[in-house]
Design a protein that fits this description.
Blueprint (H helix, E strand, L loop, with lengths): L2 H22 L3 E6 L1 H13 L5 E4 L8 E5 L6 H5 L6 E7 L10 H9 L8 E7 L2 E7 H12 L8 E6 L10 E8 L4 H8 L4 H9 L3 E3 L2 E2 L12 E4 L3 E11 L5 E8 L1
Antiparallel strand pairs: 1-3, 2-3, 4-6, 4-7, 5-6, 8-13, 9-10, 9-11, 11-12, 12-13
Length: 259
Amino acid sequence: MREKDESELIFAKIDDKINFCNTRNKITHTDFFTEPEIVKIEKYLNSVKCKNYFFFGGYEESTRKMLFFYPDKLTFEMAFSNVNQVLEILRITLPNSQKETFEHRDYLSAIMKFGIVREKFGDIVVYPEGADFIVQKENSKYFKDNLSELIRFRKSTIEILNISDLHENVQETEEISIIVNSMRIDNFVSEICHCSRNKAEEILLSERVLINYEVVNKNSRGVKPNDIITIRGFGRFIVKEISRKTKSDKDVVILIHNK
């Protein structure tokens, strides 16, 4: 499906949610959206002048979020208190013999084995003792029953908890320094991916590069401090600052890499 068609489908579903909220005078919500989708959705909601909504995915820095709509009779605070009735945690606690053996991709592949589409659950917060899956309450028992059947988790404790019990998500970061000829995105891709400018252009054309969660495919797109550069397969990088110029008038840029 083309990107435009996908966006139109998402917007149509959102219109249905808005109509339900307004006609039934009730809070309603969507499935989980990715950060690039959220950027597009916010632009759409602004264009239709929708104000009574918020995104939430279980914690402030979550990368996947649900969209909640609420009627005029409620304040944001009243509507936000409703998330505890919608979101839960599915916690897997590993036995001592398996601690620190599984990564995010291991947990993700496990839950995808059931044929569940990705938008039906949110972030997976991984820590040495196990992982917390952020799920919609209506699906939590189904996830638990199926995960319990997997051989890799048969010795694990799997439980459903309140969203407020979410394990703290400590994001590992590192500062890195790169030198670029100019503040064009192709220079950043080339330095981050340790590749030629021609290869960087290929990566851009393959739509693997995002700035502030929007796909960028023009190599001349400018980059500025505080921009968030995402390169699929390499991670996310926040442009912290241009620290100085080199003797050859190149820019030395400090990036914060979210591992």
